[in-house]
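hi support,

uploading two proteins for the ticket. first:
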Amino acid sequence: PGVTYAQPGDHVVLSFVPTCGHCSYCVRGRQNLCEARYQLKGNMLDGTTRLRKGSQDIHHFNGLSTFAEYAVVPEDSLVKIREDAPLDRVALIGCGVPTGVGAVINTAKVRPGSSVVVIGAGGVGLNVIQGAVLAGAEAIIAVDIHGSKLEHALQFGATHLVNAATDDLMERVRDITRGEMADYAFEVIGSTDAINQALATTKRGGTTVVVGVAPTGAELTIDPDFLHLDRVLMGCTYGSCYPRADMPMLIDLYMARRLKLDELITATFKLDQINTAFEALDQGEVARSIIRY
C-alpha cells in the first residue's frame, strides 16, 4: 500500500542509499548523500523493522538485508531497470560498479587523455579502471601486491601494472608519465598509508580521490606540501552517483558491451554457502561473487 514507483513484476536493482527526493542534498543533485540513508540504523525509514525471528526483532542491514529469499526495503531504495538485462549480472550494479565507475566519472571527472593511478585492483578498483577507460584516460596504472589481481586488471583496461610488493611505485609512475606524475590517483584499499602513496603519485594540479573506507578511528596525517600547487584531495561516497539515473545508464553500457560485468564474477555460491562466500571475499580470492537463490 502506498507504493507508486514500482509495480509487481518490475525488474529492479536495490540501492543501499535511498533517495528521498526532497532533502537538501537530493534537491542539489547530491542524492548519494541523501539524509534518509544516514537515518538508517538497522531499521526502515519509518524507524520500524519488518523482520523477526519469533518475537525477536531482526534489523535491516543498510536498509536492505538481501541475503535471504525475500527482502523488505524502502520504496526509495528501488531502481527500475530494463527487463532484458540478466538479473544475475546486473545485481552487481547495486554497489561496487557505481562506486568505482562513479568515482572516475562523477567525483573526479577524469578528462580524456589523462593519466590515472588506481591503488587496489579488487572488485571496486577494477570498476575504477573501467571507469577510466570510459572517460578516455590514456595511461591507466593498476597497483596491487597480488600478481593475480594485476593480471585481472588488464582485462578491464589497465595499460600498466605495478606490483607494490616488488616495484618502486613512485619510480614506475614517473617513468610511465615521462617524469610528470599522474593527473589522477584513486585509493581503493581503505588504508591511510595508501592515501599518502596516492597523493605522492600525482602531479602539480593533480587530483587524489579516496574511495576505500579506512578502519573506524584511523587518522590521516599528510604532508601539507602535497596540497600546494593546486593538488586536490577528495572524498567519495557511492561514486557520487544518483542511483535512479546512473544505474540504468550503467546497465545500458553493459548491454552495449561497453561495461564489463561478466568478467567481475569470479565465484558463484548458494545461499547456504554465504559464510564461505564471506571467507573468500575476506581472503581476497574473488573480485565479485554471485549468490544464487
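and the second one:
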Amino acid sequence: MKSGPKSKAMYDRAAQSIPGGVSSNFRFWGEDATLVVKKGEGAYLYDQDDKRYVDYRLGFGPVVLGHAREEISNHITEAMKMGNCFAMTNEYEIRVAEKIKKMTGVDLVRMSNTGTEATMGAMRIARAFTGRDKILKFDGAYHGFHDYSLWNTYPPTTGVGYKNSPFLIPQGSGIPRSVGDLMYSLPFNNKEVLEKKLKERWQDIACIIIEPLLGNQASIMPQDGFLEFVREQCDKYGIVMIIDEVKTGFRIAPGGAQEYFGVKADIVTYAKCLGNGFPVAAIGGQKHIMGEVGPGKIPHGGTYGSNVVAMAAADKVLDLIAAGELDKVNAHGKKLRAGWKKILDAAGVPYVIQGPDAMPGIVFTEEPVCREYKHWADGDHDTYNAIIHKCIEKGVMPDYDSREPWFISSCHTDEDADFVLGVFEEAVKEVLS
C-alpha cells in the first residue's frame, strides 16, 4: 500500500518539521504509505491526490454524524461571534451539561478537552473520594495517553505472566516504573480473577476503570454479566466504578453504554462522539462523588475546558443524536455485518464478528467468542491487515490496525455498504487465493 505522489510529497514536507511526519504515533503507516488528508465530506475522506475513501476510521471514532456536518458547522459559526475562550462559565456549557444529564442519567458534569484529560481527571476524583491510591484496569483497555493508562494496553501474550498475577508492561519508554506500583491490570471478562484480587487488595483500590467493551481490541464485548459483577464488587468494597465511554458514548446508544448494557457507573467519561470531531470531553457522575469537585476539595480545571466552539459543537451534536441519528448508524452496521458474514463463510476462514452495530470488529480466530485481550492477540492479524490494505487501496478505509473496529456514521448510505462489501469480497479473494 503506497500513498499517491502528492500525499507522499506532503508527508515528506511534514517529516521535516513534525517527528515522524505525524502528531500521533498511531497515524504513521510508513514513510511511503502515510496519507495526508485534503478534506472530509459526509462519509468520505479525500487525500492530497483527490482519491476518495469511504471512511470507517472516522478519526478513530468521533465523527459519528459525518465530516463537515452542515448543521454543526453553522451552529459553531454563529456561536463564534460571541468569542471563544473566556475561562468562565457560558450558556452553551450549561446547555451541554443539561443535555448530558438528561441523556445519560448522570447527576453532575465537568467539561474537559480530550478523553485523556477526562480519564485522568476521573481517576483523581476517585482517589480523592476514597482516600485510596491504586487503580485497577483491564488488559487491552486503552484509557488515553497519560502514564496511568499505558499499562498492558498491547502487551506480548507471553510476557504478562499467569492470569492470577499478571505482570504490568508499559506501552513504551518514558512511563515511570513507579507509576506501575499504583496499578493493577487483569484479564477482561474474568470474574474469578477479579474477585480474588479484590478480596486481597480492595483496601488499596480507589477505582476500577473499565471500557464497557474493549474498543481497542476490535470491540470485545462483556460476557456473562461481567459489567454487573464489576458493579456489585465496587459496591461491596466501596470502590468507585468508572465506565470509560470515550469510544462508546453517544455512539452505541443515545445514553451510551450505561443505556446499552443497563449498568450505572459512579463516574463516566465522554469525548469523541460528543463533539463529532471537535475537541471536547466530559466527566459525569453521581452527585455524592462529583459534588466534591471544587475549590479546596478535589482539583479539576483547564484553560480551554468548556470553550465556546467545543460547547457549541456538543450542543448541536446532542440535539441530532437525541433526534434519532444513531438509528441510521445501527442500520448501516447491521448491513455490513450480514455482508461480512456471507463473504467470510464462503471463504471458509475462521472468524468472529463482534461488538455493537455502531462499531463492529472482525477477528480472524478459531475462538468461538473473543472474551479477553489474549483471544484477540492470538488471532491471525497478518491476514486481516492484508485484507484491509487491499480495501484501502480500493477506496474503503477502516483503520489498517486490526485492534480498531469499523466506525459507522449516520452519513453512510446503502450504496456505500454495497460498494464496501464488493471491495471487501474482492480483497478477501485476493488475499486468500
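thanks. also noticed: The longest strand covers residues 205-210.
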